């Protein structure tokens, strides 16, 4: 237990990011659905954690998952708990938009990590995030 404290609202997230920056820490952000956490997600998040000092994981809210009928399988609050339970994740926030674009503009992470499958992506939603970064 105790991982529940890692799940924060946007205002709390921004306060903690400001504290981290004031302490000279590198802020890393990842974003995704994380509907069913699998080993690829764990490896991706472990990699992201090694890139800096504070790892933020933002999750797409339930209404915006858009991966097909009956998705997400796992509600956002439980998806957030799953990610927060990983010891190398520092903060988790549920973001009610289909991409991290607006949140990235607010957080302004030093490093934004996406999975390798996005390396050559031309998906409009991903490209919107990329423009912000």
Describe this protein's structure.
Strand 2 (54-60), helix 3 and strand 3 form a beta-alpha-beta unit. The chain contains five helices and four strands, in the order αβαβαβαβα. The chain has helices spanning 10-22, 39-49, 76-84, 101-107, 124-132; strands at residues 27-32, 54-60, 91-95, 111-113. The chain is α/β, with parallel strands linked by helices and 133 residues long. The longest helix is centred in the N-terminal third of the chain and has 13 residues, at 10-22. The protein has a four-stranded parallel β-sheet.
Give the strand content.
15-25%
User: What level of helicity do the residues show?
Assistant: 25-40%
Number of helices, counting only DSSP H or I runs of 4 residues or more? 5
Q: Measured on Cα atoms, how large is the radius of gyration?
A: 14 Å
In brief:
This protein is an alpha/beta fold and 133 residues long.
What distinguishing features does this structure have?
37% helix, globular, 5 helices, 133 residues, alpha/beta, 4-stranded parallel sheet
Secondary structure layout plus pairing:
Elements: H1 10-22, E1 27-32, H2 39-49, E2 54-60, H3 76-84, E3 91-95, H4 101-107, E4 111-113, H5 124-132
Parallel strand pairs: 1-2, 1-4, 2-3
């Amino acid at each position: 237990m105790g991982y529940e404290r890692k799940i924060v609202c946007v205002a709390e997230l921004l306060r903690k990011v400001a504290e981290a920056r004031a302490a000279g820490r590198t802020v890393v952000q990842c974003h995704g659905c994380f509907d069913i956490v699998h080993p690829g997600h764990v490896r991706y998040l472990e990699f992201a954690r090694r890139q800096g000092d504070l790892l933020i994981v933002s999750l797409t809210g339930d209404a915006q998952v858009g991966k097909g009928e009956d998705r997400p399988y796992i509600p956002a609050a439980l998806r957030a708990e799953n990610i927060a339970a990983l010891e190398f994740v520092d903060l988790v926030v549920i973001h009610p938009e289909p991409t991290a674009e607006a949140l990235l503009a607010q957080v302004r992470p030093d490093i934004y990590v996406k999975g390798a499958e996005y390396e050559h992506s031309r998906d409009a939603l991903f490209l919107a995030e990329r423009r912000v970064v």
